[in-house]
Amino acid sequence: MKKVIVGIDVGVKGAIAIITKSGMSIVVHGMHVIEIEVAGKREDGSSKIRTIYNEKKLRKLFRKMKKLFDIRYVCIERPVVMPKQAAFASGSFEGFGYLKGLMSGMKIKYGSVMPGLWTREMFKVIKKKKDEKAHAFAKRKKMRAIKKARELFPSIKLKDDSGNDHDGFADALLIAEWARTVLYK
């Protein structure tokens, strides 16, 4: 059985990456999610929708992974609330708690890492340019992660089903690689 490290970028647009202990990429899964209707209506009269983890599919995925691989460690990115993002981030904290509970219940060794720690270790600190808009800075950081993941894992597809680059795939791979290189030197 191959010994693997798993990296998880939490959030509904996150991903789960599996790499071998020797650093070869195996696969990246987009986060399994479902949409549910919540109370209230939008201004246009349509129903409010919330995207949450599909817990049943995540359990099934990890059961399958346990049968196929010797999971040495799962590294889950710890969500961080940024100013003006508290409501948006609550789903990430909910998912983080669910994933910790799933790992514990399945007796899989896991831990968490702050985004600033693994990104600082994986590439040079990137600073916001003087007149750069926040969304342009965020996009530049995402592209940096995609570029680094492509360098380290050229065989892995980092595009989602619509053909767009998926920074969650890149982050999950880089989190797994961080755990492999820092925890298993």
Features:
single chain; 185 residues; alpha/beta; Nucleotidyltransferase, domain 5; five-stranded mixed β-sheet; two-stranded antiparallel sheet; 5 helices; 7 strands; globular
Notes on the structure:
Helix 4 (134-152) crosses helix 5. The two termini are 21 Å apart. The protein has one domain (2-183): Nucleotidyltransferase, domain 5, CATH 3.30.420. It is α/β, with parallel strands linked by helices. A 5-stranded mixed β-sheet has the order 3-2-1-6-7. Helix 2 links the parallel strand 6 and strand 7 (110-113). It contains 5 helices and 7 strands. It has helices at 55-68, 86-105, 115-122, 134-152, 167-183; strands at 2-9, 15-20, 25-30, 33-41, 47-53, 69-77, 110-113. The longest helix has 20 residues, at 86-105.
Topology summary:
Blueprint: E1 2-9, E2 15-20, E3 25-30, E4 33-41, E5 47-53, H1 55-68, E6 69-77, H2 86-105, E7 110-113, H3 115-122, H4 134-152, H5 167-183
Parallel strand pairs: 1-6, 6-7
Antiparallel strand pairs: 1-2, 2-3, 4-5
Helix pairs in contact: 3-5, 4-5
Alpha-carbon distance between the termini? 21 Å
Strand content: 25-35%
Radius of gyration: 17 Å
CATH architecture: 2-Layer Sandwich
